[in-house]
Every structure is written in structure tokens, then in C-alpha cells.
Amino acid sequence: MFCSKCGTENPEGTNFCSKCGTGLGVAAKPTEDGAKPEAESSTGMSANIAGLLCYLFTWITGIVFVVIEKKSTFVKFHAWQSIMTFGVLTVALLILTWIPFIGWILSILIWILMVVLWIILLIQAGTGKMWKVPGAGDWAEKMANK
């Protein structure tokens, strides 16, 4: 069950959110396709769709959602994680492309890492999970809770 205020996933049957303490009330019925109900973001979209869109154009859409999202901690988490993860990898990629041979090989590896992370993060956000990228995830969580 997701908290309608902060978007945190809580165990079924819980009366209060484990993160913000908001009363959870009666659990919403699952949809026909079995998807978990999501809290709505301030954009009018469900939180999992908005979270997925934070990664669509890597750090660029992350910045867009940091600016427009005011309500959902879930969406803000994914927006900040997108900025941090893909921002750092993009800068590293740009620097390494200027270094002959070893830099070029490393830039290919970073490009592969970016594509794999992009796919994983799209899937995780789309299914309503707050999967943390090591290093960037903890920082993103702190920024989302501000």
C-alpha cells in the first residue's frame, strides 16, 4: 500500500505510513491487471508514471521533474537520482572521450553502463519501486525528503 502523501510503500494492513505518519485508511482495491495503486503526483499523473518519465531523457527530464513536482517524494526521489546518476556519467563520458585509447575504451564501457542503468531505472520506477543506485540513491533520498 502506498502513502498518498509521500508515496512510500507500506506493508498491507498498516494503518499509518512508516515514513511520514499519515493515516493510510482503507486500502484501495487492486486494478484488474494486478498493478498496485499509486499516489498521485502534483503533475496529475500517477507517481509511478511520473517517476518513469524522470529517466526518459536521463538528467534532462530529471531536472524538469525536480522543478515541477511539489507533492510526491517518490517522484522527487527518481528525479534527483536521474540527475545525479546520469549527470555524473555524462560528465565522465565527456571527459574520457578527450583521452586517446584508454579514455575511448572507458567511454564505451560507461556508455554501456548508462544504457543498462537507464533500462533498469525505467522499469523500477514504472513498477513503483524506489531502487537506489549505489551512491546516488542515498543522496537522492535526502534531497527528495527536503
What is the beta-strand fraction?
under 5%
Cα separation of the termini: 23 Å
Question: What radius of gyration results from the CA coordinates?
Answer: 17 Å
- The low-confidence parts are 26-38
When the domains are counted, the total is 2
Question: Helicity level, as a percent range?
Answer: 40-55%
Write the layout of secondary structure elements.
Elements (H helix, E strand, L loop, with lengths): L46 H7 L5 H10 L4 H24 L5 H25 L9 H9 L2
Helix pairs in contact: 1-3, 1-4, 2-3, 3-4, 3-5
Walk me through what this model shows.
It is a single chain. The protein is mostly helical and 146 residues long. The protein is built from five helices and no strands. The protein has helices at 47-53, 59-68, 73-96, 102-126, 136-144. α3 packs antiparallel against α4. The longest helix has 25 residues, at 102-126. The radius of gyration is 17 Å and the shape is elongated.
